[in-house]
Design goal:
Layout (H helix, E strand, L loop, with lengths): L3 E6 L4 E8 L2 E9 L11 H23 L8 E7 L3 H18 L3 E5 H7 L17 E6 L4 E8 L2 E7 L5 H11 L6 H9 L22 H17 L3 H32 L3 E5 L6 H14 L2 E3 L11 H12 L17
Parallel strand pairs: 1-4, 4-5, 6-9, 9-10
Antiparallel strand pairs: 1-2, 2-3, 6-7, 7-8
Helix pairs in contact: 1-2, 3-9, 4-5, 4-6, 4-7, 5-7, 7-8
The chain binds 5'-O-[(R)-(carboxyoxy)(hydroxy)phosphoryl]adenosine (KG4) and zinc ion.
5'-O-[(R)-(carboxyoxy)(hydroxy)phosphoryl]adenosine binds next to helix 4 and helix 5.
């Protein structure tokens, strides 16, 4: 009997569904929500309405593209949290209804464990090695910045995290200051390729041990841009590549410095990166360089599975299924679900 998992992800502003069969990814469909662009950030009420409109066509397409029938699905895995409550409710409710109609088990997945599980995704033709437990992950997204010891799919220890903004937020807020639109991370990444990373210097925060802070950097960037724009109103327009390269360089430097400390403290040299910010080309290159220099084994998820997607929820759900870890119809969405 084949194990077929339908994964559902609706924690923020992406409606996504995926099918995993015996550990292999067959399809992953995501509907992005352009409606938020003009507001410069995700509007929760609009996000949940868009999820409602998108969820059925997205699931339908994921099943079709996988070339399976809905009756072959063994279990449905959904993101329980953390995320926006209204958004989570759409995926949770859909998953419950689907499981009830097909009389199959439900599996709840922590969104952050999903990002970690993305490192284990395999689709036809993939031959890369999986990370070996225990490994250290730098989890960097729009809502989280954490250094985690991953001992197993379900056993993780957070050894460092941000005390204020997440790394993705720092990218997004600095992009907003420059008027570059939302989400800013990918735009900063693109412009940074044409700029000088050491043209402008921003002070790095002094935060204890393995914790991070990005709110001071954002404020310093805001004042720097504002002061220069007073002298030259075209300052941002004329220097946006160097501004992007310099702020990106500073963020990456903060992340890598803490990661190096984590490796020294734990002695673990099997390293991974996950979450939306792991799409950043500068961060990916910095990790590869650091790995060469320090003899680390580094695992970087495929670009398309760095930002939110249901494939990561389905693979996490698959491992729960194999271990008989199930949810029930009374499992509720949790906006602040802890790992
Ligand atoms: O994991 P994710 O899709 O959603 C959360 O769970 O938060 O991460 C989204 C974050 C956003 O802040 C976005 O700007 C950032 O990931 N991001 C990037 C890049 N692509 C996405 N940041 C820097 N460079 C990128 N290429
Ligand atoms: Zn995420």
């Amino acid at each position: 009997m084949k194990t077929v998992i339908l994964g559902i992800e609706t924690s923020c502003d992406d409606t996504s569904a995926a099918i995993i069969k015996d550990g292999w990814l067959l399809s992953n469909i995501t509907a992005n929500q352009d409606v938020h662009k003009k507001y410069g950030g995700v509007v929760p009420e609009l996000a949940s309405r868009a999820h409602q409109a998108n969820i059925i066509p997205v699931v339908d397409l994921a099943i079709k593209e996988a070339g399976i029938s809905a009756n072959e699905i063994s279990a449905v895995a959904f993101t329980r949290g953390p995320g926006l409550l209204g958004s989570l409710l759409v995926g949770t409710t859909f998953a419950k209804g689907f499981a009830l109609a097909k009389n199959i088990p439900l599996i709840d997945v922590n969104h952050l464990q999903g990002h970690l599980a993305a490192l284990f995704l395999k689709e036809e033709g993939d031959t890369h090695d999986n990370p070996k437990f225990p490994f250290i992950t730098l989890l960097v997204s729009g809502g989280h910045t954490q250094i985690i010891i991953v001992r197993d799919f379900f056993d993780q220890e957070i050894i460092g995290e941000t005390i204020d903004d997440a790394a993705g937020e720092a990218f997004d807020k600095c992009a907003k200051i420059m008027g570059l639109g939302y989400p800013g991370g990918p735009v900063v990444d693109k412009l940074a390729k044409e700029g000088d990373p050491i043209k402008y210097k921003f002070t790095k925060p002094r935060i204890k041990e393995l914790d991070f802070s990005f709110s001071g950097l954002k404020t310093a960037f805001l004042y720097f841009v504002r002061d220069n724009a007073k002298i030259n109103p075209n300052f941002v327009k004329e220097n946006k590549e160097d501004l992007c390269a310099s702020i990106q360089h500073t963020i990456i430097d903060i992340l890598i410095t803490k990661l190096v400390t984590a490796v020294k403290q734990t002695g673990i040299t099997e390293i991974a990166v996950a979450g939306g910010v792991s799409a950043n080309s500068g961060l990916r290159n910095a990790l590869i360089d650091e790995a060469k220099k320090r003899d680390w084994t580094v695992h970087i998820p495929k670009f398309k599975y760095t930002t939110d997607n249901a494939a990561m929820i389905a693979i996490s759900g698959y491992h729960k299924y194999l271990n008989n870890i199930f949810a029930s119809q009374s499992t509720t969405a949790e906006a602040r679900l802890k790992m």
